[in-house]
Amino acid sequence: MIVNTSRLVIAVSSRDHVQGSTSAIVTLVEYGDYQCPACAAAHPFIKRLQQQYARDLRFVYRNFPLTQIHPFAMPAAEIAEATAAFDRFWLTNDWLYENQDSWSPVGVPGIMVGVRRLGIDDVALQKALRDEKIVQRIRNDFKGGVRSGVNGTPSLFVNGLLHQGGLLQLNAGIDDAIASARELAREKKTDSDELPPSESPLLSSFFSG
Amino acid sequence: MAILPSGTSAPAFTLPCTPDQTVSLADFRGRNRVLVFYPADWSPVCGDQLALYNELLDDFRDLNAQLLGISVDGAWCHAAYARDRKLHFPLLADFEPKGAVAKLYGAYRNKEGVAERALFVIDGDGVIRWSYLSPIGVNPGADGILAALEGLPSNLDTAKKRAAT
Fold it and tell me: Which of B53, B62, B89, B143 to mutate to test the interface with A (most CBs of A within 10 A)?
């Protein structure tokens, strides 16, 4: 049994790339590297989880490029971030992971094939890439990941707790998080039932929110 | 055998870092040192762990720290591994007598004949300021090392600056 003490130190915010409902019970945060084979293997698995848990699961993607072992991880991350300006971030994210075998050996020219397919031309992308906030964002993602105990890729946090097992144990981790959240909600409900309504404004907003 | 705790004087050593060069702990006196004992070159967890530290060399430099990896692998093995993974910090060969330095730090596994996955932060005066023994199959990450380095009195100003950015 592995004792897990690593916690997400950078809270999920509006600055993040987020898929799913803000009222989801479980938030899954991935720290990923586009050129990492294990991340590509995890990609369809995470897609299935999103289908399976639907409104109960919110997914957040953050960058953790290991640039020395993956020379195109950083350019891939920069391009994906740049396509956010065209509202194509998630499409690029999907394309990069689904086609890693095709672009990973050749780098940027291979990535550009995918970007064009998403309807973004080279000139527009080059312009978007000049935004210095892109590199800063990737660096900040990386730094925050290190602080949170990210130790390789993909690193996945389930409701803020670093998932230490394999992908197959992820379902159990999510199920546990859902069960404990529902348990907590039941306890709070029981507590609030004992109070006159006027004395529990916070709790009532908790349930209506 | 427990690893040497914080407050202990770090045992001196000299080990090969390439087939024809050696590195001593004392070479970096006055600077902080991070010793990373790990079981073996090429094993998957070590690869991730060292690849992560390799990405953080600027951070270690900011915190006036030299990173040193140590395993019982020989210098030629280290050379091939470092080249393959593009590692930009020394890997020391605790090869002959095997594991002697790991034993000095209480970080040797007699049964398997390899170093533990253990981390030590040593200050400029040669005193261990933080140590951590990770379960052998678990990559300990870098957050503990960075927090320990930032907690050193000599890094007070640097730590403040880093927290502000």
Answer: B143
Kindly state the tokens that stand for A98.
């689904």
Kindly tell me if the per-residue pLDDT of A202 is higher than 90.
no
- A156-194 tens-digit pLDDT: 999 999 998 888 899 999 999 999 888 988 888 776 655
pTM of the full predicted structure?
0.88
- Which residues, at least 6 apart from A207, have a Cβ–Cβ distance to it below 8 Å? A189
Which residue, A34, A93, A44, is CA-closest to A66?
A34
pLDDT at A203: 37
| Residue B77 annotated as catalytic | no
Q: What domain range is A102 assigned to?
A: 17-163
| Residue-level pLDDT at B43 | 87
Burial class for A15, CB neighbours closer than 10 Å (0-12, 13-18, 19+): exposed
Residues forming a β-bridge with B68: B35
Residue pairs between chains A and B whose CB atoms are closer than 8 Å: 49
Distances (CA, A) of B92 to A96, B59, B73, B77, B99: 37, 21, 8, 11, 11
What CATH number does the domain containing A150 carry? 3.40.30.10
pLDDT band at B160 (very low <50, low <70, confident <90, very high): very high
Q: Give one word for A66, left, alpha or beta, with left for phi > 0 and alpha for psi -120 to 50.
A: beta
CATH superfamily of B14-164: Glutaredoxin (3.40.30.10)
Work out whether the CA dihedral A140, B41, A104, A48 comes out positive or negative.
negative
C-alpha to C-alpha distance for A78 and A73, rounded to whole angstroms: 9
